[in-house]
TrEMBL record:
Known pathway: Protein modification; protein ubiquitination
SUPFAM superfamilies: F-box domain
Domain F-box: 169-217
This protein's name: F-box domain-containing protein
Keyword terms of this UniProt record: Nucleus, Ubl conjugation pathway
GO BP terms, alphabetized: protein ubiquitination
Superkingdom to which the source organism belongs: Eukaryota
Main localization category: nucleus
Matches recorded under Gene3D superfamilies: 1.20.1280.50
Keyword Acyltransferase: no
Location of the protein in the cell: Nucleus
PROSITE patterns, A to Z: FBOX
GO cellular component, one term: cytoplasm
Organism: Caenorhabditis tropicalis
Amino acid sequence: MWTPAMKGERIYILDVLGGNGDRDSANDKDWIPHCFVKSTSKEFIGCTSMSEAFHRLDLARAVNDVRRFNFICKVVQILVEEKLPNLSATARKSLLGILTAICFRSSNEDVNVSTAKDLVKNFGNGLDNVNVCGSPQLVSRHHQTASSLLDLISEKNIRTAADADDESALTFFDLPREVIMLVLRRLPDHNSLLETAQVHEALQEMIDGEDKIWKSLCTFHFQEYQIKKQKTCEKSWRQAFFDLKKYHGCRELYADLIHICCHCKALFWKSLGHPCVRETTAPSVRVTPRQFVDMLIYL
Ligand SMILES: [Zn+2]
């Protein structure tokens, strides 16, 4: 599927499957999601758009893989919050496709509902920017899709930790407090903690009252020397966490993420690898979600 590079999409990608080959013409079963990236160079005869890169890296389907979900959500978050006016109408349509896949997964599996909701809301708000590409009719259609997705997510009757099918059944709160605390200390970031606190007043009380939870979060995200600089006797671990976050930013960890091959410049999922032109395994480096977005927009 060939799409010419459009406004704001100065990416030049060559797919080795027959030059600008069609991914759909390849045997889908054997297809390993990847695309080749190279800045302007005459030896590369093909170029494509952000939407094609999304397609070739199979982002919409990859949201169903729990290992890749967080990486894709972060990419979508950066795009909807910061880059919507930089996207062509085609790229925005692809983004909406990924967003739809995220919402269906969240709705069907009852997971990451608030993440999906935030992404759709920000997408809808971003469309109000006068600089977004496309005809008013197209923008209005994207608005309608966003509000349908929001309805889909909002209709979801979210079961909370305190719900049980019958009165005799155990709930999350029947666990010993120490066990609940251990679960809370496993949450990966402050957003997860603050969202969990909103679910039930007992959780709110634990998260507000137990400094140990915030200490765990500090030690997970920051180095010891960084913590020493910020944490004083007067300052709670909760406050220290937000101060540390302000100065250093949280660690970004992903179970799977996009890598770029140092030899052939292919972008690929680390867990899946790529068909490299070099026979022995070539070194590759990780690409963070922000680098990935910048690569697609500014390369
Ligand atoms: Zn390679």
